[in-house]
Design a protein that fits this description.
Length: about 230
């Protein structure tokens, strides 16, 4: 079941797509799914439904809620501010924690592309997250907006288990950057597991982009993701 909830974030109403599993067993573990740069689109909602079908409540916050309605995603993406994203994540987790059907002690975060970066940031600044899935998240070493350092600066604060899934032909996140990220996490004793898929580039799970989608790598990543969520949350 999917509903649209509106959550107040410092005076702004943020739409959150909320999906519940068909399982009658409650309360459920939950996942905050962070959308990619294109926003809460068909691909992101398909991913949310797939996760929910495996027994997780899923919340998909719209991080572009401060932008004008109907604005092209490219303009909304340029306006992103990490300090605002952190506020959005905190409000989403607080909302989930207040729901009787959610296990407040079993909330994870995941995301693709921009959403992967958001998931890494969330893992570092929101202590309630027990697990995080980073799907080809880039720009983790770069700042976005004023008032906050790059997400990598919060690595020392990550208490969640982390699963990182990348392709070896990613034109945005090179293998050297992936290696650097893994080294940084291990240096801070973050429990992490990295998988780099052969012959896969950026957005290899995005079926809406035929030039990027790689079915074999995508399905392997889905298997890893679901097994990881069951292990760390369920």
């Amino acid at each position: 079941m999917q509903t649209t909830e509106c959550i107040d974030v410092a005076g702004n109403l943020m739409a959150v797509e909320l999906l519940k599993p068909n399982s009658a067993k409650q309360p459920w573990p939950a996942v905050v799914l962070c959308h990619h740069r294109e926003g809460v689109d068909e691909f992101t909602l398909d991913a949310a439904h797939r996760i929910a079908s495996h027994g997780f409540a899923v919340a998909v916050p719209n991080f572009y809620h401060r932008r004008p309605a109907g604005e092209d995603w490219s303009a909304s993406r340029k306006a992103m501010q990490d300090r605002e994203v952190v506020a959005d994540l905190g409000a989403t987790v607080d909302f989930l924690g207040q729901q009787a059907f959610v296990r407040a002690d079993a909330i994870g975060i995941a995301g693709h592309c921009m959403g992967g970066r958001t998931a890494y940031l969330g893992a570092g600044v929101v202590p309630q997250f027990k697990s995080a899935v980073i799907l080809y998240g880039g720009h983790i070493f770069k700042t976005e907006g004023e008032g906050m350092p790059a997400p990598i600066a919060f690595t020392k604060d990550i208490r969640a288990d982390v699963l990182a899934l990348y392709g070896d032909q990613d034109h945005i996140v090179g293998v050297d950057e992936i290696d650097r990220l893994e080294s940084e996490m291990k240096a801070h004793n973050v429990r992490c597991d990295f998988h780099i898929y052969a012959n896969a580039g950026h957005a290899f799970q995005d079926f809406s982009r035929s030039d990027m989608y790689r079915k074999d790598a995508s399905e392997k990543a889905w298997n890893e993701l679901l097994a990881f969520l069951r292990r760390t949350l369920a």
